[in-house]
Design goal:
It contains one helix and 52 strands. The chain is about 0% helix and about 50% strand. With about 575 residues, it is mainly beta.
């Protein structure tokens, strides 16, 4: 092709020339163009236009300078303006036209795309004719599967076509050479088996091949070439897996797995036998259990004695193994009230499997609980009230209380929901409550508690004489026969109730002294509490009287004032 050339001479002797690599280009290809600048002072600035307007702006480029052009349609390029580094302009003229030539689409023609490695050469052709072929196993216009082999298959075969303009087009095709390596097998529970029992289990047919081409399945009775229909379900024809329905089958069968297309197919077979295992049940297990029952031993009932058989129990609340025994624990936190499935998976010595599902009902069990009222008994005994705080009372059909007081005879038990019981003597008691539900489940709660006596609070004072600057002494006389008093609080008050002071003590034998400030009437309150917290209290009035001190001069009282602290005794009184 001719090289388009654009040379521009501008004022100031500045010249800009554009030279293209050719005046024709194939669609999608690029063409190289060279810019040469002379005159003036470099570097130069230039604007390149095409037929649509401004195409490229060049700033401060040196000479020579290369640009790439990739037109989609026929186009013309010219230098619209040029100036040197001083800004001196030129007046360019001329243009370079480039013609865009299309390539010719080419397609590879072949009868099929899957082949056996034993096949002879396969003819390749193209549209339009005259293409050049290349790729693994290709010689001239022939593809040889035995030369290409299955390694690296599918193979990419290419066809290159050059049209009259020299423009190149390409087409590729994938040709598969099969490995002739396929397997098929029968699966149950993730294990490959060759024996099927009429046990309701699900069986899968699984095929595979090194070529990763989906295959199909067919069932044929041993000794027959006629397919047995109606027992294979293949929902997804692309996953090389199908389901076998063995019901109605008996004896030996071959699974035929085939993959490939047309004349190039590969098959593999797998033989299995359909057996009748019999019925497997779970024995000695109730239909209904209580949520607080102890674990149940799970034992399979085998109608056919098979010492080599193995079995597993599974499900929520199930634990153990065949050697130590399996157990179902309804009290497990994983078990909800209602129905639960227990699964028995049984495998005979010949590999046959059976499964049975037992539905057990887990009955609700309330949480028995109670509290009791004041445990401080009066001297002659007293009633204790019980508050039933059991949760889930809606399920309870009956109650049974044991008050831990056998001395009370038949009164030691009660069927009331919130009873009272009379205890004559204090002491340790083991009290229990049992709730029985409508389903016959029971829940119990026991509480060991100490019933204590209520202290009898009492005290006295050593004397009621008021001596200024001295304190009045008081002594505790409280009694608590069952539990020792360990808390004493003395409160000293005026006759109006105003608190003068409070003294606490933990020793019943302490002598308490309080500094009253004047002769008057006062109240003293004693609060006591024994070791189990039973309280008692008493309040007494004390009148402090003066202390008469006799001197050598004696003491005279004329009785004209208040009688005060003298005792007047007259005859006849």
């Amino acid at each position: 092709m001719l090289l388009p050339q654009l040379q521009v001479t501008v004022s100031g002797q500045i010249t800009a020339t554009i030279i293209g690599d050719a005046n024709e280009v194939c669609l999608g290809d690029s063409i190289e163009a060279f810019l040469n600048f002379s005159g003036g002072e470099g570097p130069w600035n230039a604007v390149i236009n095409d037929k649509d307007g401004e195409f490229l702006i060049l700033d401060s480029v040196s000479s020579p300078y290369t640009i790439w052009l990739k037109p989609d349609v026929d186009n013309s390029y010219y230098i619209a303006s040029v100036e040197d580094s001083t800004g001196a302009p030129g007046n360019p003229l001329g243009e370079a036209a480039i013609t865009v030539r299309p390539s010719t689409p080419v397609s590879i023609i072949v009868d099929r795309t899957v082949f056996l490695p034993s096949e002879n050469g396969i003819a390749l052709s193209s549209t339009p004719t005259g293409g050049s072929f290349s790729g693994p196993g290709v010689a001239g216009s022939i593809f040889y599967p035995n030369i290409a082999t299955s390694a690296g298959s599918p193979h990419t075969v290419s066809c290159i076509y050059t049209n009259e303009f020299g423009c190149i087009s390409t087409d590729n095709i994938e040709l598969q050479v099969l490995s002739v390596s396929a397997t098929v097998y029968l699966v149950s529970g993730g294990d490959t088996i060759n024996a099927v029992c009429d046990d309701g289990a699900t069986y899968f047919l699984r095929g595979s091949n090194e070529d990763n081409i989906p295959g199909s399945f067919e069932l044929v009775a041993v000794g027959s070439a006629v397919p047995v229909s109606g027992h294979i379900t293949d929902i997804d024809a692309m996953d090389d897996e199908a389901t076998l329905d063995h019901l109605g089958l008996s004896g030996g069968y071959d699974i035929i797995y085939t993959y490939g297309t047309g004349e190039a197919t590969v098959s593999a077979s797998y033989r299995f036998h359909v057996n009748d295992l019999g019925s497997i049940e779970i024995s000695n297990f109730p239909d209904t259990v209580c949520k607080n029952d102890i674990p149940y031993l799970l034992i399979p009932e085998l109608l056919n004695n098979d010492p080599g058989a193995t079995y597993t129990f599974s499900g929520l609340g199930v634990s153990g193994n065949q050697n130590d025994g399996y157990y179902y624990n309804p009290a497990s936190p994983d078990i909800a009230v209602g129905d639960t499935d227990i699964n028995l998976d049984y495998t005979s010595s010949n590999g046959c499997k059976a499964n049975n599902v037992l539905v057990v009902h887990n009955s609700f069990v309330p949480t028995a609980n109670f509290t009791l009222g004041d445990v401080c008994l009066p001297l002659d005994g007293g009633n204790i009230a019980f508050t039933n705080t059991t949760s889930g009372k809606f399920s309870v059909a009956s109650w049974m209380w044991d008050f831990g007081n056998p001395e009370s005879g038949s009164d030691n038990t009660s069927t009331l929901e919130r009873p009272e019981h009379f205890y004559r003597d204090p002491g340790y008691r083991e009290i229990s409550l049992t709730a029985t539900t409508n389903d016959g489940c029971t829940a119990s709660h026991s509480l060991g508690t100490i019933l204590a006596d209520q202290p009898s609070a009492d005290f006295t004072w050593l004397n009621d004489c008021f001596i200024r600057s001295e304190r009045t002494a008081v002594l505790n006389r409280s009694i608590s026969k069952f539990s020792e008093i360990d808390t004493l609080i003395w409160t000293f008050k005026t006759d109006k109730g105003g608190v003068l002071g409070v003294i606490g003590s933990g020793d019943p034998g302490d002598t308490i002294k309080f500094p009253f400030t004047s002769m008057d009437q006062y109240f003293i309150e004693l609060y006591v509490e024994n070791e189990v917290g039973c309280p008692g209290n008493v309040e007494k009035e004390i009148t402090l009287i003066p202390t008469m001190r006799l001197t050598a001069a004696g003491y005279e009282e004329n009785f004209n004032g208040e009688t005060g602290n003298w005792l007047v005794v007259s005859p006849g009184m």
